[in-house]
User: Fold this.
Amino acid sequence: MSNESLEELLRHHLEVGGFHQFLGMELVDFSKGEGTVTIRLPFREDFERGPGTRQWHGGPIAALIDIAGDFALLAKLERGVPTVNLRIDYVRPAIDTSLTARGRVIRSGRTVGLVDIELTDDAGRVVAVGRGSYLTTSGP
Amino acid sequence: MSNESLEELLRHHLEVGGFHQFLGMELVDFSKGEGTVTIRLPFREDFERGPGTRQWHGGPIAALIDIAGDFALLAKLERGVPTVNLRIDYVRPAIDTSLTARGRVIRSGRTVGLVDIELTDDAGRVVAVGRGSYLTTSGP
Amino acid sequence: MSNESLEELLRHHLEVGGFHQFLGMELVDFSKGEGTVTIRLPFREDFERGPGTRQWHGGPIAALIDIAGDFALLAKLERGVPTVNLRIDYVRPAIDTSLTARGRVIRSGRTVGLVDIELTDDAGRVVAVGRGSYLTTSGP
Amino acid sequence: MSNESLEELLRHHLEVGGFHQFLGMELVDFSKGEGTVTIRLPFREDFERGPGTRQWHGGPIAALIDIAGDFALLAKLERGVPTVNLRIDYVRPAIDTSLTARGRVIRSGRTVGLVDIELTDDAGRVVAVGRGSYLTTSGP
Assistant:
């Protein structure tokens, strides 16, 4: 698949389905060779924890981490793979900022893929880190 | 706090903030003594993975698990506590079903609380399990 | 495989290999149908954290949890399976006590198995809990 | 504390207690400023999985990851801290090789510290990765 086709595939996946449409993510960067992807999600009140705080709820943070992990393998394997498990460590509150998630494939084996994800705020500070296992057997 | 006041507190927390309002969760049950809470989330297209599949995206599943864990400690401690980390294992796809999340406090120490969460579909099958650590030091 | 043959297989696996020999575990109970196994490990100074404290080091606790998870699937599938990932939550210090680990299969799929493990002390208190994913594709 | 005193403290902790003595670890490197530590563990038959395979059992791998995480915070804080939880992903079998564990503090807060650990074999390949949460409140 050419780089242009892969970019199209990634953008299509980011926009398709009810939950991705709710989130409204932007593709910032990707590399098939390195198995990395960077996705940005601007803040909206729909993501807010306490009313008026402009603090991100942990839920959309977890969702963005899952998606960035999935997309790092999507960039590497050129197909979507289901999540086996996902682990999230919340490092600091994210307040009044967009979030940038960078997924990086640690390993992509015949059956299981492992991805690290780092979430940063507009000041470049780490807000949360994630690690996910994905099932790489399922493919066309 | 009386059981009625605690129920009011739980219902209030479930409804407050942009993300909780987006989700639209229902309080099914809780027990302060046992440190348990049960929350139900009906399916909506906003939670969908692939368009028209009626399959839940992993994102709202992760969010519901985080919230049920938080609320089990909220029922036990009568105050909200921040998530330290969260781990989710996806067991089977959830398709065309509402989800019921049951959180149960394993331990509630002076600094860290540990909660197990089980997510079931309308047929009572386990869809995902979660385990979360929460910071219990933060007082009111 | 008969229940006697399975018990023999489990006992053989518990005794074989340098690390299992170092630990010195005892098979307490198992059920193929339920996918459960119970293993006991008496305290020795080799497992000690601080000298003279008789407190268990986290290392042998982690190892025992991994093994109990593996053996729950061994009881269910009648063959050993490699660990994909393992998560351990330390609940309270284990001091001057043997440890009993109970593994229980949550799910045993075609590719991935999920097991919960609970570690208790001689007073029946939970010392640590574990959750592990294992690769079930690898056949004999 | 001077760098020499810190090195002495780290070496002392590596040698003290029954389980550390069983393992026989070597301090390779550390940096208080960066919150990193590198520990090496040579292979012995006591660590073996199947007899004669020279393959590391997952148990000592998990233990080494826990210790490297603990020591990264020990280098940073100049005191030992208890593990809250630990997650290990096994990436590839480690066969006939010593293991080198590098711990790196991601965050060291008032109550919880987060550490990433990478385990490599003699060829520099990643054998396993770990992530641990540690309780940093407990003072001297």
